[in-house]
């Protein structure tokens, strides 16, 4: 995780699960399990698919820049304390698309994408 406003970059290893609330993709539960680098290396040896990204803290957003094969993808995430805050938020002009409701943009789906599939998905948002 990197804070662009003065803090030194910090490497964080974690497993995250996001479960959207039924009928409300913008709301849900987030569970983070933080692990040490040693635990991460042990878990990495178990196999499976992996998403690699660097998260930049650009208040009020967390911006994820993905590594190959998803290196064409940059996602920003916002978390709100209340529904009112969420409803009042206007994304900056440089935001290309709102993808909260697109299940294809969740980690569980993205981890299965090839670079070519990602490029096709992004092209849909440019249409």
Q: Could you report the average pLDDT, rounded to the nearest whole number?
A: 85
What does the largest sheet look like?
A: 4 strands, mixed
What's the total count of β strands?
6
The strands making up the biggest β-sheet line up spatially as 1-4-5-6
State the end-to-end CA separation: 32 Å
Radius of gyration: 16 Å
What is the string of helix and strand elements? EEEHEEEHHH
Shape: globular
Overall structural class, as computed from helix and strand content, comes to alpha+beta
Low-confidence stretches: none
Count of runs of 4 or more consecutive helical residues = 4
Helix content percent band: 10-25%
State which percent range the strand residues make up: 25-35%
Verbal overview:
The chain is of the alpha+beta class and 127 residues long. The protein is 24% helix and 31% strand. The strands form two sheets. It has a four-stranded mixed β-sheet with strand order 1-4-5-6, with no helix packed on it. Strands 2-3 form a two-stranded antiparallel sheet. The protein starts with a strand and ends with a helix. 2% of the residues are buried. The mean pLDDT is 85.
Short précis:
This protein has 127 residues and is an alpha+beta fold.
Question: What secondary-structure arrangement, pairings included, does this model have?
Answer:
Blueprint: E1 2-3, E2 13-21, E3 24-35, H1 37-44, E4 53-58, E5 61-66, E6 74-77, H2 83-88, H3 107-110, H4 115-126
Parallel strand pairs: 1-4
Antiparallel strand pairs: 2-3, 4-5, 5-6
